[in-house]
Amino acid sequence: MSNKQVTAAIVTYNRLDLLKESLAAVLNQTEYLSHVIVVNNLSTDGTAAYLDTIQDERVIVYNSTENLGGAGGFNKAVQLFAEKLDDEYVWLMDDDTIVEPDALVHLVDFIEDNEHVGFVNSVVRWGTKDGHPSWMNVPAPRGFTWQSPLNSDNPGVEVVNSTFVSVLFSRQMVSMIGLPQKEYFIWGDDMEYTNRIADVNRGYTVLKSVVVHKSKENSMPGDIVREVDASRLWRYAYEFRNRILTARRISKRDMRHSALGAIRFELPRVLLKRNVKYRWQKAKMIVGGVWRGIWFNPKIEFAAGMQSSDVRSINAILRAYQLAHPTERMTLDREIELINHCQLEDLKGINQATDRFIMDYKVQMANKFKK
Questions:
Q1: C-alpha span between 21 and 50 (Å, rounded)
Q2: What protein family does this chain belong to (predicted)?
Q3: Where are the domains of the chain?
Q4: Residue 361 and which of 14, 172, 217, 371 are 20 to 30 A apart at CA?
Q5: pTM
């Protein structure tokens, strides 16, 4: 067991009863917890008054003067962690996340015991610990390599990204990739951010770390076709806009697939499937969201004094290697070796195509991140 210290961060908006339960569970962790940041997104249900009564010195409260949305709340939480505290890790969650007493210890032990880990998340159940999986928080395992760390006392499954319902990453990672994208406002900021992390070092679901998500419904993520709650419709305009930028930051090809997928598959289902409620409002949100997403490209910001120059991209390394060795048959073992040990600079000087790609990539990154 290490002596690492962790800051938990909870973003809350008008769910006081759940916040009380969530905060109590976090403060009841068995190991590692040092601080808890609570970002109150201008709640109107007595949340601020309740937070004023807390005497536990570990709790740090930020009462926002505006509703920043979930994305803005997590942006502020990570910024406060980076600029005001010295803990090694930050652990993010919503105010309806109820963590088991040993959830944190399994996350920290896994990330400390395994090399090249960018983030770790928990297994998320819905309603109760024995409930079904929380479908909106089930991450996709990465093909073939997902079972690599299974044979250990604290197993993990490699995943492509994660929601902000119990995800942990390091201070060093924040310095390398910046802050969550506050401009998303709601939905998708967690996918984009953990995609960024996984392009530096991969992410894992730690199977022994369990939390409960007490969301109102156990719905699928972004399922606009089956949505029946009129009060939630406005969120889908953000969903489709944000989805395009998230895909673009993987590749232009992913962006095209994401945009075309929304128009070719989700839009016809909304318009033609039987018994779809609010079909015209939904169609407008899909088309408008995709269109805005094509032009939506806010820069990534960093916490003050925390922009690292020692940043690598797995995707860029693999692409540069392909250019440097165009006739080589890439095996999965070779790919894993490159991911774990290669730097982009190691591939310079092999041929002009590789050098040109590396130069263009560096220019692209300089334009992407805010100085």
A1: 13
A2: Belongs to the glycosyltransferase 2 family.
A3: 6-213, 230-295, 314-368
A4: 172
A5: 0.94
Q: For residues 224, 92, 173 and 77, what is the CA-based torsion angle, rounded to 10 degrees?
A: 100
User: What is the token pair recorded at 83?
Assistant: 């600029």
CATH dotted code for 6-213: 3.90.550.60
For the stretch 137-161, pLDDT in tens is 999 999 888 888 888 899 999 999 9
Report the alpha-carbon distance of residue 86 to residue 263 in Å, rounded. 46
> CA 103, CA 90: separation in Å to the nearest integer?
14
Angle between helices 235-248 and 279-295 (to 10 degrees): 30
Confidence of residue 364 (pLDDT cuts 50, 70, 90): confident
Q: Look up residue 279 and give its two tokens.
A: 């079909």
* E strand segments, the chain: 6-12, 33-40, 59-63, 89-94, 97-99, 117-126, 156-159, 167-170, 202-213
Question: How many residues are there in the chain?
Answer: 371
Q: What is the pLDDT of residues 240-279, one digit of tens each?
A: 999 999 999 988 899 999 999 999 999 999 999 999 999 9
Q: Which two tokens stand for residue 259?
A: 């945009």
* Nearest C-alpha neighbor of 205 from the set 158, 136, 153: 158
